[in-house]
Amino acid sequence: MFEALNKLIDRLEKVAMVAFMSIATIITTFQVVYRYGFNNSLSWAEEVVIYSIVCMSFVGASMGVRHGAHISVDVLNAFAPPAVNRWLHILTAVLGIIFAMMLAYLGFQLFSLTLERGMLSPAMRMPMAWVYLPIGLSGVLLIIRYCWVIREVWRKPPVSMAEELAAEKENLV
Protein backbone atom coordinates (compact mmCIF):
# COMPACT_ATOMS: atom_id res chain seq x y z
CA MET A 1 0.00 0.00 0.00
CA PHE A 2 2.78 2.40 0.93
CA GLU A 3 4.50 1.79 -2.42
CA ALA A 4 1.29 2.56 -4.32
CA LEU A 5 0.78 5.77 -2.33
CA ASN A 6 4.40 6.72 -2.96
CA LYS A 7 4.01 6.21 -6.72
CA LEU A 8 0.76 8.18 -6.75
CA ILE A 9 2.36 11.10 -4.90
CA ASP A 10 5.39 10.95 -7.23
CA ARG A 11 3.10 11.21 -10.23
CA LEU A 12 1.02 14.05 -8.75
CA GLU A 13 4.14 15.99 -7.80
CA LYS A 14 5.61 15.65 -11.29
CA VAL A 15 2.36 16.75 -12.93
CA ALA A 16 2.03 19.69 -10.52
CA MET A 17 5.63 20.80 -11.12
CA VAL A 18 5.19 20.66 -14.91
CA ALA A 19 1.88 22.52 -14.68
CA PHE A 20 3.18 25.29 -12.41
CA MET A 21 6.41 25.66 -14.40
CA SER A 22 4.46 25.81 -17.65
CA ILE A 23 2.06 28.41 -16.28
CA ALA A 24 4.93 30.59 -15.02
CA THR A 25 6.89 30.26 -18.26
CA ILE A 26 3.97 30.87 -20.63
CA ILE A 27 2.58 33.83 -18.71
CA THR A 28 6.04 35.39 -18.33
CA THR A 29 6.54 35.02 -22.08
CA PHE A 30 3.18 36.64 -22.81
CA GLN A 31 3.97 39.44 -20.36
CA VAL A 32 7.29 40.18 -22.13
CA VAL A 33 5.58 40.15 -25.55
CA TYR A 34 2.79 42.43 -24.34
CA ARG A 35 5.16 44.82 -22.57
CA TYR A 36 7.80 45.17 -25.29
CA GLY A 37 5.79 44.26 -28.38
CA PHE A 38 2.55 46.10 -27.68
CA ASN A 39 3.80 48.61 -25.09
CA ASN A 40 1.18 47.33 -22.66
CA SER A 41 1.16 44.80 -19.85
CA LEU A 42 -1.11 42.26 -18.22
CA SER A 43 -2.12 43.47 -14.77
CA TRP A 44 -2.48 39.99 -13.32
CA ALA A 45 0.56 38.24 -14.86
CA GLU A 46 3.07 38.95 -12.10
CA GLU A 47 0.67 37.70 -9.45
CA VAL A 48 0.03 34.40 -11.26
CA VAL A 49 3.74 33.82 -11.83
CA ILE A 50 4.58 34.50 -8.17
CA TYR A 51 1.85 32.14 -6.95
CA SER A 52 3.02 29.45 -9.40
CA ILE A 53 6.60 29.74 -8.15
CA VAL A 54 5.43 29.55 -4.53
CA CYS A 55 3.44 26.40 -5.31
CA MET A 56 6.48 24.91 -7.07
CA SER A 57 8.53 25.58 -3.94
CA PHE A 58 6.12 23.72 -1.69
CA VAL A 59 5.80 20.77 -4.07
CA GLY A 60 9.57 20.80 -4.48
CA ALA A 61 10.07 20.50 -0.72
CA SER A 62 8.28 17.15 -0.77
CA MET A 63 10.19 16.02 -3.83
CA GLY A 64 13.43 17.01 -2.12
CA VAL A 65 12.69 14.72 0.82
CA ARG A 66 11.81 11.87 -1.53
CA HIS A 67 15.06 12.17 -3.47
CA GLY A 68 17.30 13.15 -0.55
CA ALA A 69 18.10 16.47 -2.20
CA HIS A 70 17.77 18.80 0.78
CA ILE A 71 20.82 20.49 2.21
CA SER A 72 22.28 18.54 5.11
CA VAL A 73 25.40 18.35 7.20
CA ASP A 74 26.90 14.92 6.66
CA VAL A 75 29.89 15.13 9.00
CA LEU A 76 28.35 12.82 11.60
CA ASN A 77 27.06 10.45 8.93
CA ALA A 78 30.48 10.23 7.34
CA PHE A 79 32.24 8.94 10.44
CA ALA A 80 29.46 7.21 12.35
CA PRO A 81 29.07 3.44 12.21
CA PRO A 82 25.99 2.15 10.35
CA ALA A 83 23.97 1.51 13.52
CA VAL A 84 24.43 5.11 14.68
CA ASN A 85 23.97 6.37 11.14
CA ARG A 86 20.58 4.67 10.97
CA TRP A 87 19.43 6.42 14.15
CA LEU A 88 20.71 9.78 12.90
CA HIS A 89 18.61 9.39 9.75
CA ILE A 90 15.57 8.39 11.81
CA LEU A 91 16.06 11.32 14.20
CA THR A 92 16.32 13.69 11.24
CA ALA A 93 13.11 12.28 9.76
CA VAL A 94 11.26 12.54 13.09
CA LEU A 95 12.31 16.18 13.40
CA GLY A 96 11.13 16.66 9.80
CA ILE A 97 7.76 15.11 10.70
CA ILE A 98 7.38 17.48 13.65
CA PHE A 99 8.15 20.43 11.38
CA ALA A 100 5.76 19.14 8.72
CA MET A 101 2.97 18.64 11.27
CA MET A 102 3.33 22.25 12.36
CA LEU A 103 3.43 23.36 8.73
CA ALA A 104 0.25 21.41 7.95
CA TYR A 105 -1.58 22.58 11.06
CA LEU A 106 -0.67 26.24 10.70
CA GLY A 107 -1.09 26.15 6.92
CA PHE A 108 -4.63 24.79 7.11
CA GLN A 109 -5.41 27.20 9.95
CA LEU A 110 -4.19 30.11 7.77
CA PHE A 111 -6.29 28.77 4.89
CA SER A 112 -9.49 28.59 6.96
CA LEU A 113 -9.01 31.97 8.66
CA THR A 114 -8.30 33.68 5.34
CA LEU A 115 -11.30 31.95 3.77
CA GLU A 116 -13.54 33.20 6.61
CA ARG A 117 -12.31 36.77 6.20
CA GLY A 118 -12.83 36.74 2.45
CA MET A 119 -9.49 38.33 1.57
CA LEU A 120 -8.91 38.75 -2.15
CA SER A 121 -5.67 38.97 -4.12
CA PRO A 122 -4.83 42.46 -5.39
CA ALA A 123 -4.79 41.93 -9.18
CA MET A 124 -6.91 38.86 -9.88
CA ARG A 125 -9.40 39.35 -7.04
CA MET A 126 -9.08 35.63 -6.28
CA PRO A 127 -9.66 34.40 -2.69
CA MET A 128 -6.26 34.52 -0.96
CA ALA A 129 -7.14 31.36 0.97
CA TRP A 130 -6.41 29.33 -2.17
CA VAL A 131 -2.94 30.85 -2.32
CA TYR A 132 -2.29 29.61 1.24
CA LEU A 133 -3.70 26.11 0.69
CA PRO A 134 -0.40 24.69 -0.68
CA ILE A 135 1.25 25.35 2.70
CA GLY A 136 -0.98 22.85 4.50
CA LEU A 137 -0.92 20.38 1.61
CA SER A 138 2.87 20.53 1.55
CA GLY A 139 2.94 19.68 5.26
CA VAL A 140 0.84 16.57 4.60
CA LEU A 141 3.07 15.51 1.70
CA LEU A 142 6.17 16.06 3.83
CA ILE A 143 4.77 13.89 6.62
CA ILE A 144 4.16 11.07 4.15
CA ARG A 145 7.62 11.49 2.63
CA TYR A 146 9.39 11.52 6.00
CA CYS A 147 7.48 8.38 7.02
CA TRP A 148 8.71 6.82 3.78
CA VAL A 149 12.29 7.83 4.69
CA ILE A 150 11.95 6.17 8.12
CA ARG A 151 10.58 3.02 6.48
CA GLU A 152 13.42 2.88 3.96
CA VAL A 153 16.12 3.53 6.55
CA TRP A 154 14.64 0.85 8.80
CA ARG A 155 14.52 -1.69 5.97
CA LYS A 156 17.97 -0.91 4.60
CA PRO A 157 20.28 0.95 6.97
CA PRO A 158 22.52 3.63 5.48
CA VAL A 159 26.24 2.90 5.24
CA SER A 160 29.00 5.12 6.58
CA MET A 161 31.14 7.21 4.28
CA ALA A 162 34.16 5.01 5.05
CA GLU A 163 32.24 1.91 3.87
CA GLU A 164 31.14 3.72 0.69
CA LEU A 165 34.72 4.72 -0.10
CA ALA A 166 35.96 1.17 0.53
CA ALA A 167 33.27 -0.22 -1.80
CA GLU A 168 34.20 2.29 -4.51
CA LYS A 169 37.88 1.41 -4.12
CA GLU A 170 37.07 -2.29 -4.59
CA ASN A 171 35.07 -1.54 -7.72
CA LEU A 172 37.99 0.40 -9.23
CA VAL A 173 40.44 -2.48 -8.71
TrEMBL record:
Query: Which domain of life does this protein belong to?
Result: Bacteria
Places the protein is found: Cell inner membrane
Coiled-coil residue windows: none
Q: Does the keyword Transport apply?
A: yes
Alphabetic keyword roster: Cell inner membrane, Cell membrane, Membrane, Transmembrane, Transmembrane helix, Transport
Could you tell me the membrane topology recorded for this protein?
Multi-pass membrane protein
Q: Where is the Tripartite ATP-independent periplasmic transporters DctQ component domain?
A: 25-154
User: Which InterPro entries does its entry note?
Assistant: DctQ, TRAP_DctQ
Main subcellular localisation: membrane
TM spans (from-to) = 15-36, 48-66, 87-108, 128-148
Fetch the Pfam families from UniProt: DctQ
Homology family: Belongs to the TRAP transporter small permease family.
Function field: Part of the tripartite ATP-independent periplasmic (TRAP) transport system.
Its subunit composition reads: The complex comprises the extracytoplasmic solute receptor protein and the two transmembrane proteins.
Could you identify this protein by its name? TRAP transporter small permease protein
What is the species of this protein? Halomonas gemina
